[in-house]
Amino acid sequence: MNELAALRGRRVVLGVTGGIAAYKAVEVCRQLVEAGAHVIPVLTSGAQKFIGALTFSALASEPARTELFGNKDDPIPHTRLGQSADLVIVAPATARFIGKYRAGISDDLLSATLLATRAPVLIAPAMHTEMWEHAAVQENLEVLRQRGVSIVNPESGRLAGGDYGEGRLANPAAIVLAAAKVMARGGDLSGLRVIVTAGGTREPIDPVRFLGNRSSGKMGHALAINAARRGAAVTLITTNPLSGPEETSRSISEIVSVVTAQEMYEAVLSRFSSADVVVMAAAVADFRPKVMSPEKIKRSLGAPEIYLEPTPDILAALVERRDRQVLVGFAAETQDVAEQAAEKLRSKGVDLMVANDVSQSDAGFEVDTNRVIVLDSAGGVENLPLQTKTALADVILDRILNLI
Ligand code: PMT
Q1: Residues in Cβ contact with 395 at an 8 Å cutoff, skipping those fewer than 6 apart
Q2: Catalytic residue positions?
Q3: Does 201 sit in the ligand 1 pocket, CB within 6 Å?
Q4: Of 136, 154, 185, which residue sits at a domain end?
Q5: pLDDT digit string (tens) for 35-46?
Q6: How far is the CA of 332 from the centre of ligand 1 (A)?
Q7: Among 66-70, 202-206, 291-295, which stretch is predicted with the lowest mean pLDDT?
Q8: What is the CATH number of the domain that holds 275?
Q9: Residue 42's closest CA among 70, 69, 63?
Q10: What is the whole-number distance in angstroms between the Cα of residue 340 and the centre of ligand 1?
Q11: pTM, entire model
């Protein structure tokens, strides 16, 4: 797999602060776009003293942003940028900006976006050697590191004013590679065999009609793609074809297409004994018509009576047969989400239950974003904010990894 593949399709906010190395951020921007990322540049006022926003606008996926206030079409740009980002990069990051970020000061669009994001953050400092080595800067960086921020250290070389020493912005290619590694979480799932189910099952009434639901497969597909990107051997059992570049499908070890709950049951159960983790993101029908009419039911014969029977409960069957496997269920709820999900966690006997309120327009079925509550069997309850299904998939995989 291409080492930058983890950047493909990712929303990356590229922050540029005011240092002489700001011109090199243009190359970072170009390489990120080339790797398939969706790049949104955000320039501080200091950055604009060194380089024009127009240069970034010409190369990036969206026009460069510079202002926190004053845009009537987008009155709160920092929350929208922060919440929808899969990654925030600051390159170059000046000593001043690092201090501000460490202190939690949000007085411009970039610093406010950093506080408003739950996405991973990568910063590439650049400054004179004396500043780089100053105890305050090093202490600020250490605090940021402890908070989970990734740092690409500067290189030694010629600095502004003809000086020579450590502090020169890392090579753009090294920054882009570090970004890809952050997105791939350093292959932390390698060695694990993960089954993910996705999409909505269709239970036939006759050759042309079925009972179904609105699941698009996006949530399950994001989980499968990210697990593969992080090194797991993934089997995706899905009712919906996986969209995206050929390389994405190739990164998944096995893709099994199914239609009905019965087919999904058989596909999951036959692979279960060799799996380490099963994530049931699919919306599996709970009931199916008892009998499928072999011919199309004719309207002229009047409304048919359709008798239903329960489908096999896949999660229940897995719980019965489990030895070491981590089992993750999803709960699609429309009311009392946390209570219903806690009840499902108990009754299904899984390790994690990811509950989404599918009555919301920006969460659950079909949309690219989701807002979930993650409950674990030890009583933990975590309310996660609205985020892309791609970003959420990584958070769920992190929680799974904690259980292993
Ligand atoms: O595909 P998208 O458009 O991206 O939408 C994502 C989603 C809303 C489908 C997803 O986030 C989600 O909530 N999936 C689970 C939907 C569901 O079936 O929920 P449930 O509460 O009815 O079922 C609870 C759990 O039991 C689920 O993990 C389900 O896969 C599992 N189940 C259900 C029925 C059955 N016969 N066997 C099962 O194993």
Answers
A1: 118, 374, 384, 387
A2: 213
A3: no
A4: 185
A5: 999 999 999 999
A6: 6
A7: 66-70
A8: 3.40.50.10300
A9: 63
A10: 13
A11: 0.78
